[in-house]
Structures are given as C-alpha cells and as structure tokens.
Amino acid sequence: MTECKYKKRLQIYLDGWMDRGDSERFEGHLRKCRICQVALMEIEEISSSALEIIDHAPDRDYWENFFNRVHNRIVSRDLSPYEQKKEWHFHRKLVSYSFGFVAIAAVFVLAFGLLTRSSRDLPQATSVNEITVPSVQFPENESPAAPAVENQEIASGAQTVVRSPNRKDVEVEPAAPVVVAEADTNPVEDDEQGGPETVAALDLMTVFRDSPQIVPARLQLERENNSLARLLAENGGTISGDSRISPEEAAEGIIADYASSGEGPRINGQNGFQVNGSSGRAADPVNPKWGYLGLPADTVRTDEFRRYLIELDLMLVK
Amino acid sequence: MGAGDSEDRILIERVLAGDTRAFERLVEKYKRRIYYLAFRMTRDHDSADELAQESFVKAYQALSGFKKGYSFYTWIYRICVNLTINFLKKEGQSVSIDSFDGDYLTEKSDTLDQLERMIASEQAATVKKALNTLPPDQRAVFILRTFDDMSYERMAEVMDCSIGTVMSRLYRARHKLRLALEAAEARRGKGEDDGM
C-alpha cells in the first residue's frame, strides 16, 4: 500500500489545526502507519530546510534608522493617520449636499426674481415692496437756500411708482435715527389737506443738511438710503423696488439733469433717483440704474425735494 | 484579543490623538517581522526595505479606519503581504534571487559534520530556489506558516481568504517544494553515481 487515507490530514496535524482528541487519535495512527510517517518527515524536512536558509541581516544602523525613514516618508507626503476613504466619503457627501443646496437656492432666487418682476409691472399696485403713506406735507422752510414748501393736497392715488434700479430686493434695514428739528415740524391737519390724513411736515432739507453730506462709505450710503426711504414713507412717498445705490454706481459720474416734461418735473440722476411726477402713471421704461421714488405729485413739484435729490446724488459722488 | 493586541490598541489610540512616539513604538515592535516577511518573499534587501517602509506608511495613513477588536499584527502583515504580492506580480517575479553570496546555513548548523552540513546547505538552496518559483499567494502562506508560525485563522485574515483556501495553498506550496527537493536529491544521486 502506497497511499493512506489519513495522509491528507498530515498537514492540519502538523500545523496544529486538530483539536486535542483528534490529535491523540491521529498520533495513534501515526505510530502504526509507515506511509504517514514518511510523508510527515518530508513535510518537516521542507520546513527545516527553509529555516536553514540564512536571511540577509541588515546591520544595526539600518534598524536604528528604520523609523526615521518611515517618518520621513510620512512627513514628505503630508500624510495624516485619518483614513482618506472616510474623507472622500465626507467630501462626497459635502459635494452632494452643496449641489442640492445650490439647486434649491437657485429655485428660490428664480422664483423671487419672477415675483419681483411681476410686482414692478403693476403701475399702481401696492406690492410688497411699497410703503405707502396717505399723505405728505412739507413744512415751510426757513432756510435761505430752500424755498417755502407749499402744503398741497394730496389726492389719493396720486402717487407714482416707478421702477427701481438694479436692486434685487428692498430690504430696508433699520435706519439710523434722523434728527428732525422740532421747530420745523408742523402738524398737519386733515382739514387743511382736504384729503387723506397727512403726517407732520418735515423740513427735509434741514434734515438732510444736518446729516453728513460726505458719504464715502457704503454703509453711510445705505444709511442715507434707508433714511430717505423712511422719510419718504412717513411723508407719503412710495418706494418701489430697489432704492439703494451701489458703490459701483456711486463711483460713476453724475449728471444732474433737471428736466421737466409734459408730465411733470423730473429729476434725473445718473447715480440715483428718477422721479416721475406723473400722477397715477407708471414711469417710463427705465434705465436699470435708476432708482425710483414714488412721490405724491405735489411733492414732486417742490423745489425743496428736488434740490435734496440733487444733493444726494452729489453726495454719492464724493 | 491577547495582551499584545491590547497594547497595540492603546498605541493606536495614542497615535490618533497625535502621539507620534506611539507610532514609533508600533514600528519598532513589528519592523523586523515585516522586513523579513518582505525579504523572504522577494529575496532582495532593497525591495524588502521599500516594501517594509511602505507597509508602515500605509498603516499610518489608514489608522483611523482600524477596526476595534482587530489585531494590528494581522493588519500590518496583511498590508505587507498585499504590497509584496502586488510588487511581485508587477515585477513579473523577476527578483534577484541570489543578491549575495553566502552560506545558507544558520549558526546552529555549525555543529553538523561536514557532509550533513553540505546536504543541509544544498537542501536549503533548493528550497530557496523553489520558493521563488511559487506563485506569490502560495509563497506567502508558506512563509507565514513556516517562519512566522501563523495559525490558519490568522493567515486567512492576512490573506483575506477562507481557511480552506489557506490550507489548499499551503498544501500546494509544500507539494511543489517537496517535488523540488526530490528532484535535487535525484540529481545528487545521479551525480554520485556518475562520479563513481
């Protein structure tokens, strides 16, 4: 007999894979089976021969500097002990979330843009961007530079709302408090107006003269815008769309064009506001740079306010 | 998990906390084993040095993904075996077999008489040569079992295969080496006969 059915178990016996019971039984077999004894010796000879192979032994310096070499590799590659796979997963999640966020934001911006566009197209509609006050009355101005302001009746609906310059929204931030000279403030009586309730007249020129005239900083520009917006709102003005002036616009030159048309006085400022004095009518198609203030028709006709707007434009250029 | 594995786990946690000295301790603990594993696979010092260093670099890089309960010893071996097998496949196994001239006998063979010493030397050379002709995966399991006394389970983890596959590869490796030894013995016997 040249083969033994237990010969195949020699390896697992030799490698210690058998449990104790099986090992003892196999050892009993080994004592009797010459074939398995020879085969076992052959396997052991292979292992012993392999172990006889002398392995190249690096010198002491090699071992002492081994870690330094490993460390240098890590440093030179700028590695960290954090799994790149995880970072990749994190980045992949971050990218996918970012795309989703951008897509949602784009939808909102588009929707908002469509909404604001539709609101601007309405000539007399009271849009969310409009702040309307029933009446306005300008006080008599004692300043030598400013002519007297007439108290004029404001017809309801006599407001013009025109487009605003390149402003995306009308977020009127809380404006800095405006100092109003009490002496110039006269109460407005409804009876005198004969129309909708009016608020106390204000000496606008005085108000804005008291404010800093040089507004180089954007923040101040914005504050000026907000003050104007607020005052206009309090005095019957209507602001639609973007009433802010961007620094880019302020950097451009200014053309103050005191023009008038058959529809009423109109003040054009390249950097600022176009006021259309037409009552109840929408403004002409506008230069997107223009800011629009909707003012009651009578207010538009006041030199006082017109002069203010010019001065505002001038301020922006400084 | 043995005491050694527990110590390794603590060192790993310290490395992740920023303690490079803890990583140095891990390297010092396993550098010889990893180097000799790579050397026995490639039979070339430069290749073994490169592979051993890369094994630790890769281990460092992936340390945060080291699973709790796993053995660092097994893990670093696995990295080294994979790197070495890939290296051998890439190099077409054309690795310098005899990069140095030397006695193939270890110190303990000095006590053998001259004939036995010669036979042992020839057998060692035969196994060494035959070992280099084995496919990388068979070579790896033979080296892990013979030189590192690794269990089947651990080899299965290192090689990322089943225990049955480990057994099969080991059996085939030993069988081929056995055939090589028999052939060498046959040549030796024939030579002696011719010399007579």
Describe this protein's structure:
The complex is a heterodimer of chains A (318) and B (196). With 318 residues, chain A is an alpha+beta fold. Chain A is 45% helix and 7% strand. Chain A contains twelve helices and five strands. Chain A has a five-stranded mixed sheet, covered by helices on one side. In chain A, β2 (256-261) and β3 (264-269) form a beta hairpin. The longest helix of chain A has 37 residues, at 84-120. The model of chain A is unreliable at 125-202, 211-219 and 238-302 (pLDDT under 50). By secondary structure, chain B is mostly helical. In chain B, 74% of the residues lie in helices and 0% in strands. Chain B contains eight helices and no strands. The longest helix of chain B is centred in the C-terminal third of the chain and has 33 residues, at 163-195. Chain B starts with a helix and ends with a helix. Residues 94-105 of chain B have low confidence and may be disordered. The interface between A and B is large, with 37 and 55 residues.
Short account of what is shown:
The complex is a heterodimer of chains A (318) and B (196). By secondary structure, chain A is an alpha+beta fold. Chain A has twelve helices and five strands.
Name the helix and strand elements of chain A from N-terminus to C-terminus, one letter apiece.
HHHHHHHHHEHEEEEHH
Helicity range of chain A: 40-55%
Chains forming the largest contact: A-B, 37 and 55 residues
Provide the residue-averaged pLDDT of chain B.
85
What topology, given as strand order, has the largest sheet of chain A? 1-5-4-3-2
Quote the beta fraction of chain B. Answer: under 5%
- Kindly name the structural category of chain B: mainly alpha
Quickly count the helices of chain A: 12
What is the overall silhouette of chain B? elongated
Beta content of chain A comes to 5-15%
Put simply, the count of helices of chain B is 8
Name the shape of chain A in a single word.
Answer: elongated
How is the biggest beta sheet of chain A arranged?
5 strands, mixed
Largest sheet of chain B, if any?
none
End-to-end gap of chain A: 114 Å
What radius of gyration of chain B results from the CA coordinates? 19 Å
Query: What are the secondary-structure elements of chain B, in order, as H or E?
Result: HHHHHHHH
